[in-house]
Design brief:
Ubiquitin-like (UB roll); nine-stranded mixed sheet; elongated; 12 strands; alpha/beta; Rossmann fold; 30% helix
Length: 240
């Protein structure tokens, strides 16, 4: 008996693909009207400085919106929220949107109009309240991208040194860091300073730390390390 053309394997595969495409593209529209798939919750993840409720309030979504509604406007608005490096949203059925954010990491604090504000590595004021999660960061004299950029490189090159920096600012064309004594010399009361060119690379920053460690081993107190000169670190000595 001749086999029906519609019963051949090729037609079955094509039919299955067509049905799958119909369900994939058509199902969301069909389901949008169902109460079961209405938006009931927005779950914000990754926030540390921003408040989840403020992010939710900024989104063009309200309870009762279909979970299958287009997210294009949500993503566009999310990308424009100040203080965010990334923003993405995905659905979790039946009625939840999960918003995952990555905030810009603060690098310093600055006093402006009598208030402490957080700065990014680019020297931009961040819309974060330091009182919410007050970080232990250096205090800078002004929002200066050369100063904050150097601080970011110090943090990346040597987190231990960065953790000891208490202040930073311009000194002529250079950047002057105020640092706490290292743990092994914590009894010292000297005000320590490290002087850099604004564009000092990671190698120069690590060289400063090597010099300090060598001085600590030899019991040689210092008050300033000057790393502005190629291939050397100039030491200004402190009292023995």
């Amino acid at each position: 008996m001749a086999q029906s053309r519609l019963s051949k394997p090729g037609w079955k595969v094509l039919g299955a693909l067509s049905l799958g495409a119909l369900l994939w593209f058509g199902a969301p529209r069909l389901l949008e009207g169902l109460d079961f798939f209405q938006l009931r919750k927005i779950d914000v993840r990754g926030q540390r400085y921003l408040r989840a409720e403020d992010i939710v309030a900024a989104l063009p979504l309200r309870p009762g919106t279909s979970i299958f509604a287009s997210l294009d406007s949500v993503n566009r608005l999310g990308d424009s929220i100040p203080g965010l490096e990334s923003f993405r949203v995905h659905r979790r059925l039946p009625g939840t949107l999960v918003v995952t954010i990555r905030e810009t990491e603060p690098i310093a604090l600055v006093m402006r109009r009598g208030l402490l504000q957080l700065l990014s590595a680019r020297g931009r004021v961040l819309p974060f309240d330091p009182r919410v999660a007050a970080p232990d960061l250096p205090l800078v004299s002004e929002a200066d991208s050369l100063v904050t950029g150097l601080l970011a490189r110090v943090r990346d090159a040597d987190a231990t040194l960065f953790g000891r920096v208490t202040s930073a600012g311009r000194s002529g064309e250079d950047v002057l860091l105020g640092v706490e004594p290292a743990a092994e010399t914590a009894a010292r009361k000297d005000r320590l300073q490290v002087r850099f060119r604004p564009d000092a690379p990671a190698g120069v920053i690590r060289a400063v730390m090597s010099v300090e460690q060598d001085l600590a081993k030899r019991g040689r107190p210092w008050v300033e390390l000057d790393a502005r000169f190629a291939g050397q670190v100039v030491v200004r000595w402190g009292a023995a």
